[in-house]
């Protein structure tokens, strides 16, 4: 397996042996089926960052085709299906031409992939990708506002259940890692993109005590209050960036 730009190849090497074997098997199957029609194959997400948890995490795989013809899609359908059920390998299928064209609508996803991925086959389409900061800011606000709205709905649906609240908080905390890390970048705060570092940096920037988020399993109520406050302040902060100012 080849390391991509800014990738953590060792993270993939630490995956469970059966998962690694399935990745190699899938790579070889796709190369046989597609030949030159396979432009790139790479692993991203938790499996590339080192946050993969056996039995809990998916392995995020990007399959980049020269063109997404019906013939090409049919040729790889069975291999991708087997990989999904055998090792939770979830594939996103793109074409080489549409990656730069879609950088304006997927700025955070592309940032995350560019920063940390493992190239398995082909050429890296992300190393020279240019992403407009305005699109990045807009997407950060969209994702944070969506998380805020969905968190409120989860509380209502939970009808006072601590178990439901606990699950909602734990899910949302993981989901906002990306937009919070991007917000820190927009504000000139450098740092690793692991969840603990991102939460600590966001808490410091926004003046929120994030310690309760570390105890969400034991005290979901306090964790919810901390998360709601963090989201509220983050939304205000990123919104003000649109007008050339930020919350202090």
From TrEMBL:
Q: Where is the Polymerase nucleotidyl transferase domain?
A: 26-97
Gene Ontology MF annotations: nucleotidyltransferase activity
Gene3D superfamilies noted in UniProt: Beta Polymerase, domain 2
What is the recorded name of this protein?
Answer: Polymerase nucleotidyl transferase domain-containing protein
């Amino acid at each position: 397996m080849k390391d991509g730009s800014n990738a953590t190849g060792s993270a993939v090497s630490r995956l469970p042996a059966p998962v690694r074997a399935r990745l190699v098997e899938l790579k070889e199957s796709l190369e046989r089926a597609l030949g030159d029609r396979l432009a790139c194959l790479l692993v991203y997400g938790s499996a590339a960052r080192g946050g993969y948890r056996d039995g809990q995490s998916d392995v995020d795989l990007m399959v980049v085709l020269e063109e997404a013809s019906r013939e090409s899609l049919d040729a790889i359908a069975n291999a991708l299906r087997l990989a999904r059920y055998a090792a939770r390998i979830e594939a996103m299928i793109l074409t080489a031409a549409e990656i730069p064209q879609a950088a304006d609508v997927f700025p955070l996803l592309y940032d995350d992939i560019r920063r940390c991925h493992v190239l398995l086959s082909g050429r890296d389409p992300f190393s020279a990708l240019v992403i407009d900061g305005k699109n990045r800011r807009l997407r950060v606000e969209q994702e944070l506002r969506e998380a805020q709205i969905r968190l409120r709905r989860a509380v209502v649906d939970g009808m006072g259940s601590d178990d439901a609240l606990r699950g909602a908080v734990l899910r949302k905390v993981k989901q906002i890692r990306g937009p919070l890390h991007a917000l820190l970048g927009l504000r000139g705060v450098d740092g690793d993109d692991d969840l603990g570092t991102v939460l600590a940096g966001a808490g410091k920037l926004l003046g929120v005590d994030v310690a309760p988020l570390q105890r969400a399993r034991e005290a979901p109520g306090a964790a919810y209050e901390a998360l709601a406050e963090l989201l509220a302040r983050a939304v205000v902060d990123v919104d003000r960036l649109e007008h050339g100012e930020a919350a202090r």
